[in-house]
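Homework help board

Subject: predicted structure for assignment chain

Our instructor gave us this sequence and asked us to write out the predicted structure in C-alpha cell form, then describe one feature. I got the C-alpha cells but I'm not sure how to describe them. Can anyone check?
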Amino acid sequence: MLSRPLFDRIAFLGISWYAILIVAAILIGLLLAGREAQRQGFPHDTMVDFLLYAIPLAIVFARLYYVVFRFNNYADDLLSILDIRQGGLAIYGAVIGGLIAARIVSRKHGLPMLSLLDVIAPSLVLGQAIGRWGNYINMEAYGLRISEEALQFFPFAVEIPVGEFWYWHMATFFYEFCWDLLVFAILLAVRRHRRRTGDVFCWYLLAYCAGRTVIEGLRSDSLTFISDFVRISQVLSALAAFAVVVYFFLRIRDRISAVIVLPLVSAVLCLVTTFLGEFERGAYSFLFRFSQISLVLLLVSQLAIIILWTLDSRRFDPVTAAPLLLDAAFIVGLLIAGIGRANADNTYYVSLRQCAAMLQLILCGWLLCYRFCPNTDERE
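My C-alpha cell output:
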C-alpha cells in the first residue's frame, strides 16, 4: 500500500503543479513583502520592480548552479541545459540571482540594499516552504532509504518508485518545509526586535542555513564535489551560517572580552562537529571518537559561556542560560546514547549530533546579536 496517492505532475494545459506552486509562492510573497515595503515607506512599485529582475535572474542562476555541478549530464548535449522542464534548479543559485536583483533595484530606487533584503527575506523563506510541496508531487528531494518498518510512514518517510518497485525514503522535503515555516516565524519576530538594518536577512541566512546543513546530510540526491559524500549545498549552508555569526561578532567593537570571543570559538566547534560527523558517516567510521570529543568540547564551551557571562555581569542571567542549558542537556543525552556505538550504524546518530551543533550555532548568533551586544538600535 502506497503512502500517498499518485499525482500527475501536469495540472492542466501542460502546466505542472510545481509551476503552479511557485507562482502561488511568488504572489503570496509579493503581497507580504509589498505590505512591509509600504509600511517602511518604499516607492510603491519597488516589489514589483524587484520581481521583474529577480524571476529571470533566479531561474538563470538556479540552472547554472545545478549545471556546474552536474555538467557531465549535459556535456554531450549542451542545448539540453536550456530544458529546465526536465528539472535541475538549485535554490542557492536562485538566491544568488535574487541578491543580484536586489542590488540592481536598490540602486535604481536609491534604497539601502540591506533594508530591501530585510523586507524580502520572510517572503523568500515562506516561498521556499510552499515550493517544497512541488518536490512531493515530483517525488524528488527525498532522503536516505528507510528499512525499519516502524519508520515507514508519512510524514517521516515517503515511497519512491525505482523501476517497478517502490521503496521508503526519508521525507527530507517535508522536514525542510517544517523548518522553513519555523524560520518564517523567527524572521517575523526578528523584524519586530531588529537591532540593525540587515538583521532580518542575516537571521534568514543563519537559521535557514543551519537547518539545511542538517537536512542536506540526509538527502540522497545532493549535488556533490570532490567525493560522493561532500555535499556542496551542505558546505555552503554551514559556511554561510558561520559567516553570519562572525559578522555579529565583528560589529561588537566597543567591548571585546573573553565572554564575547567564546561564542565565536563555540561556533568553530559547531562546524568541526558537523563536518567530522559527515566524513564519519560518509566513509571514515574511525572518526566516531573524534566526533564525540568535539561534542564534549562543544558542551564545555556552552558551560564556559554561562560561567563567564555570570562573572562578567555579576549575576546569573536565566534568559541567557536557559537555551544554552537545554542544548547542553541534549548533548549530554547524545553522549550517553553514544556509549558503545563506535562500531554501530551511526547514520541517524550523526544527524542528531549535527542538530545539537547547529542549534548551538544559532544560539551563538543570538548571543552576539542580542544578549552580548550593546543595546544601541540602528534602524532605518
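Reply (TA_rk): Your C-alpha cells look well-formed. For the description, you could write something like this. The CA atoms of residues 308 and 314 lie 9 Å apart. That's the kind of observation they're looking for.
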